[in-house]
Design a protein that fits this description.
This protein is an alpha+beta fold. The protein is built from 17 helices and 37 strands. The strands form eleven sheets. The protein has a nine-stranded antiparallel beta sheet with strand order 1-9-10-11-12-19-16-15-14. Strands 2, 3, 4, 5, 6, 13, 17 and 18 form an eight-stranded antiparallel beta sheet that branches. It starts with 9 loop residues before the first strand and ends in a 14-residue tail after the last helix.
């Protein structure tokens, strides 16, 4: 019987038609991660469309503080007296030179490893890229797949700069020639065969996506020289680049690639998932989980955000059989609580406590973990923590977050702040402030109260105050948020009630202890907001609707939650629809196609609200991956009711 570990997990594949089309191949991005927050990333075409694209991006303060090192490794085939440049670059002059994408015979991802094949006549060269999990380094292998002996040159292009910025050449960088290669500004080392020094600036490298985003798109990179060798059929020329301990060389390239493949197969095997889409999402989820453990909210620019982490928790950890890592994450998160609030992020410097929902998602994550695993020890460890969170919200905490004693519901908001997940601001002014009693905040609140009561019961404890509060909040919720044939998005806000049609009401039905169960709500929201790639954030007939999430930072932020599609919301939609008996067949078809259209094997942060729903935002986003996987598993369990399920009420059934 064949070993299941021997079966490759294949990602999206592309034939010559796409590989030879610059526009299509430049829109499809690949990602390889080191498990620390560092990564290698680029496009199928080889075009560096973002400032973040490169072969070695190092997380200097994991999982943030990223620095770009090795930008590219340009291959040149030497066949007789011909030199064929296989790279593809765009320059500020508008030229695309060289045009190596025209030689691409194929691209695919297998076991998480991206592979290219360039063909020139009867010669075919294959490239593979892998990283060692837990070490900031990358290996790039070049193998002659077919053809007689050829020469191969590899020209590294280098920098050392903040991944969010650019570097323009002035002073010559510090490059030191060492055994088999060089070090760049003593930050990283690159080694391989036949290194020959030959320095110079490559000026005016152009990043077209940054230009589209209204950002500086031009930079200069340094060429320290080249590696070279002769290849016969089946032979490889391999390059290593790494940061950290520059004196200790990494394992051989072939060993690193084998280890990366084996790790990917083991992750999929452990998940026990067999559908190809689910397996691709398991590997996409793995890219988001880094040492600690922590969750990278999205590549290439996000670090760790507790709202995204806790919203993603069930999909990233419970649906992928990573409960032990998740357990450690929940305990670490609990240690950041202050005044009953979970720290949201340190991406911008100081730790920020600036959300009304991250802590409520934490209550949900803890409850789902305990219910699905039966982890009584974790329940006992965190019971007092959850009680303290509730008490802090009752007495009132930061930013006006407090329980209204008249109905037991949560109110929040202060001028200049946007505390829900719809948190975009322009020039310090919230676009969707949603102050007052936001519907999903209160759905999470009711769910958190009920979940805490059940968690306490597991510990053979009761809390009469929380039980009384849960009863009051649950009783008040329908009357506060339902208005005939309408559902409020926000009640009792500074400008009164909001009747805008938004997807937030889905959580009032989808959560395990949801306060509503009206089918018409899901039908109404579905008609206005459901797209092939997720849910719009605002109905198209609303005067404030923005159908395109494009332009400079301010333009994008104005549209961020005003119609832009968010794939993560497919999870709440599918769960709500299943609860009220609405069909969901085919609802994930567009997202399945999306796995091969943007961030390959992954799910983007956002898309345009208007068709054809062009992907925007980060091409690899944690909660998009997590909720698509969770939605897929919900549908699978519906179709296979005899299989164990994660229950809303208490453990596997």
């Amino acid at each position: 019987m064949a070993d299941p570990n021997d079966r490759a997990i294949e990602g999206p594949a592309f034939g010559r038609q796409i590989c030879g089309d610059l526009e299509q191949a430049a829109q499809r991005e690949w990602l390889v991660c080191d498990g620390l927050g560092g990564f290698a990333m680029g496009t199928v075409a080889g075009l560096l469309t973002r400032r973040y694209h490169g072969l070695l991006v190092v997380a200097t303060n994991p999982p943030i503080g990223r620095q770009l090192g090795l930008v590219a490794l340009d291959p040149v085939l030497v066949i007789g007296d011909r030199r064929i440049r296989l790279a593809t670059h765009e320059w500020s002059s508008g030229a695309v030179d060289p045009v190596g994408y025209q030689h691409l015979e194929g691209f695919w991802i297998e076991d998480g490893i991206p592979r290219w094949r360039w063909a020139v006549g009867d010669v075919c060269l294959e490239r593979q890229i892998a990283m060692t999990n837990g070490r900031p380094g990358v290996v790039i292998s070049h193998r002659l797949v077919r053809g007689s002996a050829v020469g191969l040159e590899l020209h590294p292009l280098c920098t050392w700069r903040d991944a969010n910025a650019e570097r323009l050449g002035s002073a010559e960088p510090l490059v030191e020639v060492v055994a088999n290669g060089f070090t760049f500004e003593r930050a990283y080392r690159v080694t391989g065969p036949g290194f020959t020094a030959g320095a110079g600036w490559y000026r005016g490298l152009w990043h077209r996506v940054e230009a589209d985003r209204g950002l500086n798109a031009e930079e200069d990179v340094w060429s320290p020289g080249s590696f070279s060798g002769d290849l016969a059929s089946g032979q490889s020329l391999d390059i290593c680049a790494w940061a950290g301990d520059l004196a200790t060389e990494p394992p051989p390239v072939a060993q690193t690639i084998r280890a990366a493949r084996q790790r990917a197969r083991q992750i999929v095997l452990k998940s026990t998932l067999t559908a190809s889409t689910d397996q691709a999402l398991v590997l996409a989820a793995d890219q988001m989980i880094v040492a600690g453990p922590a969750v990278v909210a999205g590549y290439p620019w996000f670090g760790s955000w507790s709202r995204d982490t806790m919203t993603s928790y069930e999909g990233l950890f419970l649906e992928t059989a990573r409960e032990q890592e998740g357990r450690r994450l929940l305990l670490a998160a609990a240690a950041t609580l202050s005044e009953g609030m979970l720290a949201n992020t340190s991406d911008v410097g100081a730790t920020q406590y600036n959300t009304a929902d991250a802590t409520l998602w934490f209550l949900h994550a803890v409850a789902r973990h305990v219910e699905s695993t039966g982890d009584a020890d974790l329940a006992a460890q965190l019971a007092d923590v959850l009680v303290e969170v509730i008490r802090s919200h009752v007495t009132g905490t930061r930013y006006g977050i407090h329980v209204d004693p008249s109905d037991g519901l949560l109110s929040q908001g202060e001028p200049g702040l946007a505390l829900t997940w719809m948190d975009a601001r322009v020039d310090g002014i919230p676009i969707t402030q949603r102050a007052g009693k936001a519907i999903e905040i209160n759905a999470l609140w009711v769910n958190g109260l009920a979940s805490t009561i059940r968690l306490l019961a597991r510990c053979k404890r009761t809390d009469a105050g929380i039980e009384k509060l849960e009863a009051a909040a649950g009783r008040s919720f329908p009357g506060r948020f339902l208005r005939g044939a309408a559902v409020l998005d926000v009640a009792q806000g500074p400008n009164g009630d909001s009747l805008q049609v938004r997807p937030n009401c889905l959580l009032a039905i989808s959560l395990p202890h949801a306060p509503l169960d009206q089918r018409w709500i899901v039908e109404k929201v579905g008609r206005s907001l459901l797209t092939s790639l997720g849910m719009r954030s605002l109905a198209p007939d609303d005067p404030a609707y923005e159908g395109h999430h494009q332009g400079d930072q301010a333009e994008r932020d104005r549209a961020y939650h005003q119609g832009t599609v968010w794939p993560w919301l497919i999870g709440p939609y599918v769960e709500a629809a299943l609860k009220v008996g609405i069909g969901v067949d085919g609802v994930l078809d567009g997202l399945e196609r999306h796995l091969g259209e943007w961030g390959l094997g992954s799910v983007s942060e956002t898309t345009d609200g208007d068709p054809p729903h062009r992907a925007t935002g980060a091409p690899f986003q944690a909660w998009s991956i997590a909720e698509m996987l969770r939605a897929s598993r919900l549908i699978a369990r519906r179709d296979q009711p005899d299989r164990p399920v994660i229950s809303s009420g208490g453990g596997a059934q």
